[in-house]
């Protein structure tokens, strides 16, 4: 496990911010050093880098700037959670999958989402560790469970996928995007027959994972999301980390 003194010792090493650490337990990451709002979560086994190591050993900050390795996602780690990390003996290396490999894994990603829905759950902003997820957290985790890494947020996932024309045949495993005309703010996983599974919130949604229809004839929740439909994207590749120190 890592202590603050050990982290400080790493500061003097060449490319200190390239050192990868591995989570030995689930870890929460926040959107600022105040640690007030969850940004995302890192499940046990994930890799991260510490992006800035404080100069003064005598002053321990409340949080550290970090970046997850699998999806390049930034966040703030509570200093106390350093104890949940170890130096990675073997660094994370992204696997390249063909479109065919991905297609064969889609049924298991869908099965993961359905199993998650069967557990008692509620919507959690920033949630990627079950049982509670946000929309893009459920999608990312379902695909990560079968070795397919996607970007973290809905708008990033939309940009990452191959856009499918509204007149084309949509396939189970495609991603369905919702939001404003300028940005995707919600995502679901298409199941076929005009249905998709997603984790939706309290104000507009089911406060957890549910299945809705892409139709103006559905119930109130389905109608609300259908009115915000932006389009559908197909996953044809895995995310390759772009960040370099």
Sequence-ordered SSE layout with sheet pairings:
Elements: H1 4-10, E1 20-23, E2 27-30, E3 38-42, E4 47-50, E5 63-68, E6 74-78, E7 85-87, H2 99-118, H3 135-144, H4 154-160, E8 162-164, E9 175-179, E10 184-192, E11 195-200, E12 208-213, H5 220-226, E13 229-234
Antiparallel strand pairs: 1-4, 1-7, 2-3, 2-6, 4-5, 5-6, 8-13, 9-10, 9-13, 10-11, 11-12
Helix pairs in contact: 2-3
In terms of per-residue confidence, which ranges show pLDDT below 50 for 5 or more consecutive residues?
none
Counting helices, strands and paired strands, the structural category is alpha+beta
What's the gyration radius in Å? 19 Å
- The first-to-last residue Cα distance is 23 Å
Give helix % range. Answer: 10-25%
The total of beta strands comes to: 13
Based on Cα principal axes, name the global outline. Answer: elongated
- β content, as a range? 25-35%
What's the tally of helices?
5
């Amino acid at each position: 496990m890592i202590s603050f003194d050990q982290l400080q010792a790493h500061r003097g090493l060449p490319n200190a911010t390239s050192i990868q650490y591995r989570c030995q337990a689930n870890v929460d990451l926040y959107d600022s050093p105040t640690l007030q709002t969850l940004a995302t979560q890192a499940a046990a086994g994930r890799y991260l880098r510490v992006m800035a190591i404080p100069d003064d050993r005598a002053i321990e900050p409340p949080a550290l700037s970090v970046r997850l390795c699998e999806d390049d996602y930034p966040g703030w780690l509570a200093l106390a959670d350093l104890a949940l990390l170890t130096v990675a003996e073997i660094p994370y290396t992204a696997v390249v999958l063909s479109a065919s490999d991905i297609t064969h894994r889609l049924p298991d990603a869908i099965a993961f989402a359905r199993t998650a829905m069967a557990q008692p759950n509620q919507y959690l902003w920033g949630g990627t560790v079950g049982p509670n997820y946000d929309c893009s957290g459920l999608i990312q985790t379902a695909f990560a469970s079968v070795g397919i890494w996607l970007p973290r947020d809905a708008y990033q996932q939309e940009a990452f996928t191959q856009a499918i024309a509204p007149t084309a045949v949509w396939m189970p495993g495609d991603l369905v995007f919702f939001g404003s005309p300028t940005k995707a703010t919600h995502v679901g996983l298409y199941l076929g027959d005009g249905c998709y599974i997603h984790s939706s919130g309290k104000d507009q949604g089911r406060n957890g994972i549910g299945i809705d229809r892409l139709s103006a004839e559905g119930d109130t929740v389905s109608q609300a999301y259908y009115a915000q439909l932006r389009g559908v994207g197909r996953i044809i590749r895995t995310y390759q980390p772009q960040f370099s120190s």
